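Work package 3, deliverable 3.1, input record:
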Amino acid sequence: MIDRHDVMRMARLARLELSEEEIDQYQEDLMRFLRSGQKLQQVDVAEVEGTSHAVHVAHELRPDQVGTSLRQEAVLSLGPRVEQGFFRVPRIVEGQE
Amino acid sequence: MSKVSKGVLGMANYDTVIGLEIHVALLTDSKFLCSCSTAFGAPPNSQCCPVCLGLPGSLPTINEKAVECATKAGLALNCQINLFSKFDRKNYFYPDLPKAYQITQDAYPLCSRGFLDYYVDDQLVRTEITRIHMEEEAGKLIHSGSSIVSSDYSLVDYNRAGIALIEIVTAPDIHHPGQARLFVEQLRLLLSYIGVSDTKMEEGSLRVDANISLKPKDSDLLGTKVEIKNLNSFRALEKALEYEVSRQGEILDQGGTIRQESRTWDDRAGRTMSMRSKGDAPDYRLFPEPDLPPLCLEPAWVESIRASIPELPLERLGRLEEQFGLSRYEATFFVHYPDFCQIFFDLAEYDLSPKAIVNFLMGDYARLARERGHLDARRIAGLLTIVKEGLIGANQEGVVLDALFSSEKSAREIVKEQGLEALRDSTELQGVVDGVLTANPDLVARFRSGESKLLGYFVGQVMRATRGKADPEVVNKLLEEALS
Amino acid sequence: MKELIQSLDVREVSAQEIVQHHLEEIAQHDPGIHAFITVDQEGALRQADDADRRRAQGQALSPFDGIPIAVKDNISTKGLRTTCGSRMLEDYVPLFDATVISRLRRAGLVLVGKTNLDEFAMGSSTEYSAFGVTHNPHDHSRVPGGSSGGSAAAVAAGEVPWSLGTDTGGSIRQPASFCGVVGLKPTYGWVSRYGVVALAPSLDQVGPMAKRVEDAAALFALIAGNDPRDATSAKAPSFQVPAWDPEVLRDLRVGVPEEFFSAGLDSQVEHAVRGCLRQLEDQGAVLQPLSLATNAYAIDTYLTLVTAEASSCLARYDGVRYGKRVEAEDSNTMFAKSRSAGFGSEVKRRIMLGTYVLSANHYEAYYEQAQKVRTLIKEDVLDALSQVDVIITPTTPTAAFQIGAKRDPLEMYLSDLFTAMANLSGIPALSVPCGLNSHGLPMGIQIMGGNFSEALLFQVGYMIEQGVEGSARHGQL
Ligand SMILES: [Zn+2]
């Protein structure tokens, strides 16, 4: 069972601002999705290792050599709000998830 | 390790339990996950690329040197090196975190189950290291106001984002704030010995988070843990923990309960402050990083790293005390100043007494060397040898030392050129003594009538006449004979 | 394509003319199809000009120097905006090329534009693009499939000879099937993902789309290979286009999983696929019925993993460094407002699902469980492939559906029913057209094989293609 509170908590975690209708909609979607996913819960996976990578590859490490970075102007050209070489963000409020 | 004991007691009614999480920036030329430079002090956002800016489609690749440094730290801290380790994503939003997740190691860290032994008040104690894992650094925030809370806006520089870090996590094994400080000091020293970090706290290369709780004395019940974030000096670490010991103690004394929370240290106000006031506990939604395969290390590679680890501070302390007979104070000096220690070891190769070397290195030399850089051990040995041989008097040592710093000449050459050889030839000195006594008939009379302290004056005059080169022993003897 | 290359080679036509021709095709067809988000007319002609100059000096970069191509708009192209079909990246112009783009440029291919897709590749119909719906060239009232719908439609409509798509659960093969073109989901790791905007990094692959199997193979040869910038990139050698020899079918063991021919499969699709199978058998292949029972879990497993990974991959769009930003008093509100304004409803839905399955109290039951079931699926597939050389199934249960027909997201998710298994297990899968249904709509057949068996898949696909074309000619007579 998923209530509106759960949906709002997920939205806060994911930094999404949802309308009342969206909350209703996603509550329903989540419930249906989880119900359909019920059959996964029944699969016996005792002793089974999870797969997080499709194909096993040996991890090739990168040598510690400095390469070229982007030019500062190029980096800042992407920014919606920049100031004196920095990206600017509004007030940072601590104490949220 | 029979000397190891388990710490020292804290406050009166409560036992203090402290665990530390230490973030250490690794000494690599390029970042952890991309090849941007790690150099400090560049213009903002000038050492960034698609990867460390988290541009869409960019992918991380692991810096080999970072793995090497982390492994080295693990081995030096007696950890088990896990040949199989994994990377995970820790998801949270923050303006300094480019991808809105941090690449870290959660379930399978690189190192686990180690320890560090160190002295607390002459007692060797052990703090367990639970784990060491690798992760990436975040960017740097500059606040428009005096603090984050009072700022209308902040500016972000991603030059630092993606630099390789290790997080060293201790067991809650530490029993008072002073011990926490000693632990971090020893840890920092060890890390600098193995060369994996510049450990500059003022530049943020070493940062400490501390967990602290109090429990009634001899109780098995653990208290509620409070986390103090981002302590970036030894002083801040010790003061913040002391503050928490008394804050929590007072609350408990009054029958209150401690809130589990994160706090921050306000250095100016001298107190800790709560960081989270609203919202739920953080939910980082950790899961395996799909962009990075697991890290599988070869045992032979780990052994080659082990072989590269130099003598560590505690071993060195023991060796200085046992092999060379240094006092704890002296040995500690050399352990803390590896450059002096190296010179000590070099000088010990010569036929010189450790005591003489130590006195020399910890004396005027220390000050001069800090100002002007070290002298070649061979040249110091030359000086100490002629002192030992008595070629020059103690008074001349300083003159020769100065000259060693300002020229390339050897001590012997300097002595010869400046004619500083000690005068101990009795016949030669007899003339000088006679001259001094003849020139001061009334003082000789006063001496003879009992003013024995005038002997010093005569010695001084002889020394002056010989420009300090006269052997004081011989001078004394001649004066006593002449005045008797 | 062979003809194009030959005429370029003998300088019968110039790259300019070829590119100009395709730009005219785009101008003519795209208003009705809307396969493109961005057409770079100027840049394409400039690149064609460069190609002609190189060819004139005998310095052609490859046989394909000057041949046009279109690329799905979730692949980063330096200097050419890359929107991912999202308002979030409406004005985002990458500072770097994806590795696959560098490889195409190195071969002299002319990038004519960026094709439409479901927003951030989340969808199976290209209806979820912020830049409008793409129409199926065979029937404009129908979807082209998705999420690489633009890349499939552009090839099908003759706007470009070939294109690149991306495939996370079927996003190349399903639109290839709907549009009657060839599409390959390569072995995970054989094509670099560097610069490809992530949907689910453990499943995503870039692959070729073309009218003919030979062309798809040639394009795959251009893009496949190890990339040190992608740590999940395989250490496989480069891909060599195989010889097209019918002998390949002799004694070829073809696995036919019964689960893919059960209820829900359109009878015309079944008929077409079975027809192809019979032809293969006639040419010496040995059909072997087998079971891939774990496919019953494929969609749920796939959805759990894809939404989880996507929720994390899409977190970076926070309005700080690039992309859409809606100003607010504090950073958290700015993040939320920017993301809510930038993302469409399907993206938000998947972020919500993914956040849920990764959250502290649900991780074990959902995400971790799905990872373990993924292991079972992978073992099931690899076990089957130890008994047969290839596995053949329909690519999709039905031909292209009507635009607007699938309003229910869960129903839409079922589009990947036959394709997600290859992504979950990492193996390559090729979709080849296998005829038209009674509405004149294309249908597709899927050939799966072991890791790095692309050459074999192309060879088998080529034989199917020959057979289907032969039957079509025969039918016309
Ligand atoms: Zn970088």
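Chain A touches chain B at residues 9, 12-13, 15, 50, 52-53, 56-59, 61-72, 75-76, 78, 83-92, 94-97 (CB under 8 Å).
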